[in-house]
């Protein structure tokens, strides 16, 4: 057998591990998704008692959802702001790394340290710091700063990878054709790094939207959605929570699918439509 | 020397005065001076890392020299950014914008000049037609062949009719079969447009067949510049002679000078080399000279002053010429090229005497101490 040909046994083994992993990854979500459609008398565990949209209807009508609406809105706005800020800072930080400067190695590692720092400690430490400075914590001030610091390393790494594959000769060509640096960035660099920018924006959004540990101590009296869900879990567990989870996951999937379709259309446009 | 001391010559397209550029401890360009008259074809020739591309990038404004002045069309531009210089540049891999159609990128330079849309469209159509790529107007770079990309890159650079076009190994990315055609086209284009071309290459065939003026660089310095035939027939340094194919470079010590002819003692014997415009070197000082491989004469007569006894090691037939590699005293290797489809006259392993007439020896400048 040629060394490049995979043996049947290896194929099965690798396939099993891969499928097992995917199941492991998606099973919890699928459980929640299934249980959210259980009947009126359904509980929060299997077996399901009937199938209905009862909990979704309940969610829409009941008071419970009113409790969730403000945190949901806050989380959404916070995630949007975090996403936008992460994009701007990541692009700038990665651009700075392209230019090389004194201490750029240190800068790189310090930025990435944010990935390693335990969230609960970061949140708590930040809360102590703000109290020391006499700043009142709130979801749209202190929590916002902490969320950005959490999403930034991810965005930074994404943009670094994007710029790694970016040919600086393209910018130079634009400059020699009479474009100023700003014009060259706007007309050449930006459209070419756009897929990476969208990826960074998605990171910024999703990392903020479901962040619990870093928000716990920093969001003040008005909590975000993860905090509200956690609080509700402490109080009473009903399939309504599952319905909320399913609804938000579906939202994320829709957004991601839209992005994927966008990328695909763009790639097709760059290749040129087959004629 | 300050700028005020030097008269500005407006008819020059480009003037470099003592350009110097370093990266940390590495000197990339060292004291490079160059004058380019109106509408000239200049070739910067040298091995990789010799500073030719850095020099070009300094002219473009993509690099800032540490010292020296750059004048384009008589105007000092040393501190100016690329977009304020009257230049365009063509890159080795063409650097086409992947997200723009051919028409869009050819019009880019005009857009930057804020020309009206209708005027841009008309001019782009005209240029695309002139470069025979009108049918590609709506394509993107990914849908173009190498030769088509090259044309698009050229059209994009030429559309604004800059004073100088800088070309960084512009045909290096093309297939061999295409290169010759493209070279001819570019030469014609340059003559017709009157735009000065500054062409960077490591390929001497390109440099000598295209350039009105060839600049040979090595180790960040200009070794020699001049007309191609001048550089070819009279290499002024051992590096230039060695870099140009077909030269035998012989090293030795200076002897006596008589009637403008220097005696040079080498491992192969003593030879007589004309001084020409060089000052007589001190007796015993190290120097070198060269003889072109096709200027050697087989079994020379008594009237030929320079003679060497050699043993033929290999004979290679290249089609256009036959190259003999021979070895002399002390293991010195000598090449002898025989042009014309003549029958082989020297066998491998054969001992033979070769010689050359006085005026075919080219003495080199003494290496800088």
Automatic annotation (TrEMBL), chain A:
<feature type="domain" description="ABC transmembrane type-1">
    <location>
        <begin position="72"/>
        <end position="262"/>
    </location>
</feature>
<feature type="transmembrane region" description="Helical">
    <location>
        <begin position="12"/>
        <end position="37"/>
    </location>
</feature>
<comment type="similarity">
    <text>Belongs to the binding-protein-dependent transport system permease family. CysTW subfamily.</text>
</comment>
<feature type="transmembrane region" description="Helical">
    <location>
        <begin position="141"/>
        <end position="163"/>
    </location>
</feature>
<feature type="transmembrane region" description="Helical">
    <location>
        <begin position="241"/>
        <end position="265"/>
    </location>
</feature>
<dbReference type="Pfam" id="PF00528">
    <property type="entry name" value="BPD_transp_1"/>
</dbReference>
<dbReference type="InterPro" id="IPR035906">
    <property type="entry name" value="MetI-like_sf"/>
</dbReference>
<keyword id="KW-0813">Transport</keyword>
<keyword id="KW-0472">Membrane</keyword>
<keyword id="KW-1133">Transmembrane helix</keyword>
<keyword id="KW-1003">Cell membrane</keyword>
<dbReference type="GO" id="GO:0005886">
    <property type="term" value="C:plasma membrane"/>
</dbReference>
<dbReference type="GO" id="GO:0055085">
    <property type="term" value="P:transmembrane transport"/>
</dbReference>
<feature type="transmembrane region" description="Helical">
    <location>
        <begin position="75"/>
        <end position="94"/>
    </location>
</feature>
<dbReference type="InterPro" id="IPR051789">
    <property type="entry name" value="Bact_Polyamine_Transport"/>
</dbReference>
<protein>
    <submittedName>
        <fullName>Spermidine/putrescine ABC transporter permease</fullName>
    </submittedName>
</protein>
<dbReference type="InterPro" id="IPR000515">
    <property type="entry name" value="MetI-like"/>
</dbReference>
<keyword id="KW-0812">Transmembrane</keyword>
<feature type="transmembrane region" description="Helical">
    <location>
        <begin position="106"/>
        <end position="129"/>
    </location>
</feature>
<feature type="transmembrane region" description="Helical">
    <location>
        <begin position="188"/>
        <end position="209"/>
    </location>
</feature>
